[in-house]
Amino acid sequence: MRTPILLSFAALFAVSSAHASEAGQINISGQINIGTEGVSKGISETDGNGQIVGALTASHKAFFVGVRAKNTTGSDGTDGQTQWFAGAKGDIAGFKASLQLLYKTNNNARPGTDDDFYEWQSDISRTFDKTTVKYTAVYSPDSSGSTEEAWWHDVSVAQKLTDKWTLSGCVGIRRLSPERDYTGYNLGATYAVTKQTGLDVRYYDTDKHEYGKRFGDRVVLTLTQKF
Question: Which range is the signal sequence, renumbered to this chain (predicted)?
Fold first, then answer.
């Protein structure tokens, strides 16, 4: 699986590097999130424990590449995940859109476990005055562990209340093979402490509590620092 993934990344990086060499500066940015729990695609990925996520991105015009790392807790012994990503973004007829390829490895999984996979992610959003509507689709032809084909679709709405406060919510649908489907949703508020620092409190839940603790409801507090 690794060869086509690495070739895809190499192609995307080559395109972005070629554009960068023509005119321009490569911008480096980073972000750190510290949360009381880690949640991905609507469910917990730290089993009630806190999570730290760090990301570093290099961008030039429409193109970007980067790496992200976070601690996780998995039934296969996983204690973290590293993500390499590359893609492009831009404005199309008043919409903001992006497409990226992510290569993910689950760290320290038990030997013999399917611990690496890739995902295609597309996002499109539009802002109407103080309201932003966003749609995200994530697809993996062969996800980690026993999961094969996997989809995640979500629609979110964010309403800017003041210069500091934003209210937002999201509904997402997960489709997996072998079948283990669920619907996840969240509702929360974000406070902009500064232009670079934000504090978010959010309630998460799914419609499949019978799947286990990870699918139950929870409230998560997250501090975000950009640099």
Answer: 1-20
- For residue 143, CA distances in Å to 12, 26, 151, 161 come to 22, 32, 10, 38
Q: Could you state, in order of their start, the residue ranges of all structural domains in the chain?
A: 2-226
CB-count exposure of residue 85 (10 Å: 0-12, 13-18, 19+): buried
* CATH, range 2-226: 2.40.160.40
pLDDT digits (tens, 9 = 90+) for 193-218: 999 999 999 999 999 999 999 999 99
Return d(Cα 80, Cα 114) in angstroms, integer: 14
Which bin fits 77, alpha (ψ -120 to 50), beta or left (φ > 0)?
A: left
DSSP state of 23: H
**Segment 39-72, tens digit of pLDDT:** 999 999 999 999 999 999 999 999 999 999 999 9
Query: What's the distance, CA 55 to chain centroid?
Result: 11
The CA angle 35-38-40, to the nearest 5 degrees, is: 135
